[in-house]
Amino acid sequence: MSSNKFFFIFKDSMIESNNVSLSIISLRNPATRNESKYLIRRRAKESTLYEVNCFNEQHRSWFINEAVCSNGKIFLPTPIDPLFLVLPYLVENCSERAVPLDQIIVDGKFPHTSRLTDVLCPSRMTLVADEKCAGDIHAFKYNETKTLEWLVTKCHRLCKAIGKQEGPAARSLNYIKEEKENETEEDDKSTLHTAFGIVADYLSLEFGRKLATALGFPEDENISKKRKSIVDLESAVVKKIKKEDIHETTPIKLPASEKKVSAKAKALAKAASGSKSISSFFKK
Fold first, then answer.
1. What is the mean pLDDT of residues 189-213?
2. Residue 185 DSSP SS3
């Protein structure tokens, strides 16, 4: 029996070379700021960042060769733009002044945060910040206008990718097309809203509202409260599980009247009904 093994699904291109090294690290989730797992793929001088998605079901195990792995989870790494992870640090550390990149991406609780410099090309920082140079020093100052333009562009590019999908996935994402085939504008808006939902999952709620406004979506309660804090959600789930466990494991006590009496006990009670107790002989 083994529980220290984990089952990953990789594309062949990720592990086809012997010079590739893979490492799992803990970083802050850009939306919730809680711990999440990420994978860094290093090859020669090139590094790529992946988020580690986990699929888990109860009562699942893996048979690996002749061993049983009780950890039945499936881990699926998918590429992620490192700018999403850098953005919260950029807003926090250099909204008022320009700061070098290696001083922006610093987190005392997550020391591997500094490794984001390995997967992020410094030139891409100009998509979300203003660059200031002094000799060999390159510093960056957060620019909200640039950031929103970058996010809006991402949403439109993702919208086009979603629109090109075929099969059941495309029909589910673009369900309005089946009902209103002639309303192209409404279809595009629905697809853009889907793209916005995907991108907003990597943003804080406040930034998600700003992006919704930049995309021209009306101020809607469903958008402003699109994603509840995952911390609260997980806490609610844990409490529910604990409550269910207590309910299932707590023994149920039957009333005294409902307790079963054996035939032997009945016979002894009947035999003792006509006899006196020993103490009665010593009474005056």
1. 92
2. helix
3-state SS of 30-62 is CCCCCEEEEEEEEECCEEEEEEEEEECCCCCCE
Q: Give the containing element (helix H, strand E) for 209.
A: helix 205-214
β-strands 74-79, 99-100 pairing: unpaired
Q: What residue type is 88 in one-letter code?
A: P
Pairing relationship of beta strands 67-69 and 62-64 according to DSSP bridges: antiparallel
Rounded distance, CA 108 to CA 175, Å? 46
Contacts of 227 (CB under 8 A, 6+ apart): 31, 200, 201, 205, 208
> What SS3 class is residue 140?
strand
pLDDT attached to residue 232: 54
Strand, helix or coil for residue 231: helix
Taking 90 as the threshold, does the pLDDT of residue 83 lie above it? yes
- Residues, the chain: 284
Contacts by residues 172-175 (CB-CB < 8 Å, ≥ 24 positions apart): none
